[in-house]
């Protein structure tokens, strides 16, 4: 039987709506994101290729075509970065091989396969260049899909969120200011022809950062079991 999505929609139906509107919000009863690949939901071939490309990016196998998995007005949101266009996003991905000697995937489990949202628990091992140490990190990766390409062979991402804790992001305070500042500036410091491919995307449609007051349930982040 062919793999199909759940049919559920979570986000706006127009691709012209800026990426900030495609943020999924959730908290968890705990921060255990250990994947069980044997329980992973099946994906269509096009969706599987998308997930494969995202995991390749995490694994420092960065290419221009893989960064094109994001729309020009995309948002990337994790505990260290808030990048709100594809130019900034390219700077982050192409910087990874400069920071890490190696990164490899230790397994993943797709837990949500909605029409416009794929979520998977991801286990990644990161080996630093300067410090001979490997960090093992588990996280919940949420890919909010672009309405225009969701049925195509090359699906793009509007909002990419990576959560390693039980709480969501408030988008407030000094911590957020730092992660937005570094995303706003890293690509300016890189002498990279690959990053320059995406320079025009700095003019992509943007809206204000969504501030939530809290990363807990009261910050519009309901508790979800996955």
Précis, in short:
This protein is an alpha+beta fold.
Query: How many beta strands in the DSSP annotation?
Result: 6
How many strands, which pairing sense, and closed or not: the largest β-sheet? Answer: 6 strands, mixed
Mean pLDDT, as a whole number? 94
Percent range for helical residues? 10-25%
Radius of gyration (Å): 17 Å
The ordered H/E elements are: HHEEHEEEEHH
Which range does the strand content fall in?
A: 15-25%
Give me the secondary-structure category: alpha+beta
Low-confidence stretches: none
For the termini, the CA-CA separation is: 24 Å
Shape: globular
Total helical elements: 5
Order of strands across the widest beta sheet? Answer: 2-1-6-5-4-3
What order do the helices and strands come in, and which of them pair?
Blueprint: H1 45-58, H2 64-67, E1 70-77, E2 82-83, H3 86-99, E3 100-113, E4 117-128, E5 134-145, E6 157-163, H4 173-185, H5 193-196
Parallel strand pairs: 1-6
Antiparallel strand pairs: 1-2, 3-4, 4-5, 5-6
